[in-house]
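Cross-posted from the bioinformatics board.
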Amino acid sequence: MFIHNFKYAFKTLFRDKMLIFWTFAFPIILGTFFNLAFSDIESSEKFDLIKIAVIENDVFQNNEIWRESFAALSDADNAERLFQTQYVSEDEAQRLLEDQEIAGYFVLTDHGPTVVVSSSGIEETILQYVTQEVSQAEEMIQTLTASAMAKGEISTAGDQNAFYAQLYSEVMGIAQESEPRIQNISSENLSYTMIEFYTLIAMTCLYGGILGMVAVNLNLANMSNQGKRVSVSPMRKGKLIFSSVLAGYITQVIGVSLLFVYTIFVLKVDYGDTLPLVVLLTLCGCLAGLSLGIAMAVLVKSNDNVKTGIIISVTMVGCFLSGMMGITMKYIIDKNLPLLNRINPANMITDGLYALYYYDTLDRYFVNVASLLIFSLVMIVVSISGLRRQRYDSI
Amino acid sequence: MIVFKTFLRVLNQCKVPIILYTVILVAFAGFNMQASDSSAGFMASKPDVLLINEDDNTGITRGLTEYIESNCTIVDIKNDEDAINDALFYRDVHYVIYIPQHYGEDFLNGLNPEIQIKSTGDFQASYAEMLLSRYIKVAAIYARYIEDEQELTAKIGHTLSKQTEVEITSTLDTNRLTKSALYYNFANYSILAGCVYVICLILSSFKSEPIRKRTAISSMEYKKYNRLLLVSNSLFAVVLWLFYVLLSFVLVGNVMFTAQGLVLILNSFVFTLCALTIAFLIGNLVKNKNAVNGIVNVVALGSSFLCGAFVPVEWLPNSVLTVAHILPSYWYIQTNERLKTMEALNFGTLRPILFNMGMLLVFALVFTVAANLVSRAKRKIG
């Protein structure tokens, strides 16, 4: 009897087109959108060459420091290249700036260097910073020369020029050899678009709740004719419901496996070396979704549509809070309202996967696995106490 | 009137999703619109940096921390490795600098001590690293010539405080305009999802077989019935649009009263018309009420993701944008993007915008024709 009911529950679930759309197809479609929209987002934040223009006038031509600095920073062979520079007339530069082909341009006049930009931004700031750096280097040499003069180390103007030239090459030498020692100790796994895929998995797991709900409804006398028939049969209720729910769980796991296969092989999402742990967490997530669905089926005394609506709303709000519509949301909640995300099953899944991806230790991951199991247990206990001893004299 | 009343009754049934789409829009907008200073002058960007100083805050170390503090935004995060790592991952901070113990002393002894950092590797982080190494380099050069620590930090500070003059050509408040464009870009989702969802549900309610049979044999003229349905649906779309426009005045504020703001509103109106025709087409194609929800999500989320409503257009891969040309949302969002930096409105600058709006109208026309063809083919009952 167990296998018989299991088989038919399985068939019923698979033939419901809406169910299959939401639990199988929708996550895959959404994943495709994520992939299309986010595939470039991180590389476009990386440091790129900044397009600038330099006004070619006599003052600039005659100033060796400025000319060489810009040449070096625009040199394609230089590893620290910052700019893609055009040397143009002032009118041309203004046109380029208006058409937004350059971030800004640089003018050197007798009054000193000036940077012209059209708005404030990080590229403009870097252009300003670099020109500042060059004038600061100039200033530094002047200061050192002045203090040498004050100490009486040099006296005549001829000496001063020679000293200045010597100091210049000396300072450049020091600047090169005293390269600051900066060691980057941040983790390599910093790709935050991964969170989007984690919320997608969370969504799929929780949408599975609809499967659990439909599976339980099949056995409830107040929900369907089928439920009435099943209820009058001599089979034990526990066995009946367990076999239907098991069918729901397996359908759900098939849906999630499809999503994994699709994201790994088609979208090339890298879940890291810890795939078995990812799978373990996902299985727990499916259980949480399923038990949420069962609890809704039992506790909400209303029709199918309302129950589905509640499950979808809980899932979407949960995913929103765990960062599906912008990962900053998850961070804000984690930081300011940690309790909310502690009881949010979508966040348990997202956070567990995040901990696995980003953290070196597994503590936080296992806390989330345990939370999911506790959440499922609570839902199941609540459902069982709701389902026990249901009797209808007439219906 | 009967048709209109029924329309309102069905509308009342789908208020929950409409509220949901609006709440998401407001949440998104409120999120991105936290008032930042709007100023016309040049403001240097300050990268978000966290400074963890294990050394005594004196001498050269103090100079360094002061320099970083004045050129970066120091983010307040509790000194806990997990909290710092989380902040870095979610880009709350872009660059973390750990100054080791005895840094100042070791530096003066010429040891060139190592500084550990954590970095997100993006523009902000690169700029923060430039600032850090700039200070160390200048300090290293001066340290060769100057013995006295006090004189040394004073000289470094003096050199690094030298500023370059920056001229800014635009007086446009791009900051506020960008935000209003962001709001209208996101409204692409809310308008599209709202229109398609409601109109499809209404059309499918009117199309269920018993009701169609009843209206078919009633004395009401077929054309009048259709016209009423069209008017009430258009009315709904316009009300939805008006509501979102009003909301934009509340959320974005004064910048909506400029000429650019007016064009944004106009553009969203043209888009609403287009969304209305899309909804009509889908409503005519789909009979099953349950399927509407799925289709709304795919259509609205799809065009929002692919055309840059959620993710800024400049971050989308070019191939995606090329494909997006076939979607109306693309033309709508392109106009919003152009308005962000448009200084003067004249025929020359408005031409591309008029072209985009024209494209939207062409789409609307195509959808209307298609919807009519479909409904004619499906007119027969049973």
